[in-house]
Amino acid sequence: MSLEEGVQFRIDGPLGFISLNRADRANAYMDSMLEMIEHALANHIATAEVHAIVFESASGGRFCSGADLDELGLRSGADALNLKSMKVFDEIAACPKPTIAAIDGPAVAGGLELALACDVRLASDRARFAMPETSLGLIPAAGATFRLPRIAGDAVARRMILFGEELNAAQALECGLVADVVAPEALADEVRRWGTKVAGLDPLALRLAKDVLAMTSNDDACRRQTLDSQARLYERRHIGDHLDE
């Protein structure tokens, strides 16, 4: 899969964009796409004129449906202990520049975990959010177990992670999961408005503020337990048995 086919990146003013480009699979990501995201992220971090980094879909009406189910079905317990998605989303969370998820359409499973790794989430009014992993015999394994409770609150996180409850855009705004909701045709302008705001701030102050905020929570224990639990679920029975149901 080429960079153009799976992930696109570009610079527009103060914003560096990373666009998921797999519309035929609702932007489900494979490990090869995660490597492309790493490459694009590093490029934007190293580019001085980029003040903030935006994650979006290259086409409207969808954000990301999470991991590709065909690839997911091939994973073993050992694979679960070294998930590429956890590594890449941690890198996004640790990015020295502010990150924005522009969510138009569904952000599901790992797609929501990608958005949770960003500093700010902006949504269109047709966005929706869900964590359906338990219906597949799994748990969210790329950050939702510790990021979602902190961002949206413990009660909302439990309903979404344990019971698969779906939130619409208005509900996501109410619980703080997203910072703003606009019409789909206004989402690009809203992203640019945030980009203009970030461009007027001091880059060093932003980076240091992000560093301090990261110190307010220690996710290491939860991260280890998440991966250990996912490994047990992979080993219990072949994941493909659930995905075929």
Give the overall shape: globular
Q: Round the Cα radius of gyration to an integer and report it.
A: 17 Å
Alpha-beta classification: alpha/beta
Mean pLDDT metric: 87
- Topology order in helix (H) and strand (E) letters: HEEHEHHHEEHEEHHEHEHHHH
Instruction: Tell me the strand percentage band.
Output: 15-25%
Low-confidence sequence ranges: none
Strand order of the largest sheet: 1-2-3-4-6-9
Describe the protein's architecture and organization.
The protein has 245 residues and is an alpha/beta fold. It is globular and about 50 Å long. The protein has one domain (3-185): 2-enoyl-CoA Hydratase, Chain A, domain 1 (Alpha-Beta Complex), CATH 3.90.226. Helix 7 (144-152) crosses helix 8. The model has no long low-confidence stretch (mean pLDDT 87). The strands form 2 sheets. It has a 6-stranded mixed beta sheet with strand order 1-2-3-4-6-9, sandwiched between helices. The protein has a 3-stranded mixed beta sheet with strand order 5-7-8. It is built from 13 helices and 9 strands.
Topology:
Blueprint: H1 3-6, E1 7-12, E2 15-20, H2 31-46, E3 52-57, H3 69-72, H4 77-80, H5 84-93, E4 99-103, E5 106-108, H6 110-116, E6 120-124, E7 128-130, H7 144-152, H8 154-163, E8 167-168, H9 169-175, E9 180-182, H10 187-199, H11 203-215, H12 220-236, H13 239-243
Parallel strand pairs: 2-3, 3-4, 4-6, 5-7, 6-9
Antiparallel strand pairs: 1-2, 7-8
Helix pairs in contact: 2-5, 5-6, 6-7, 7-8
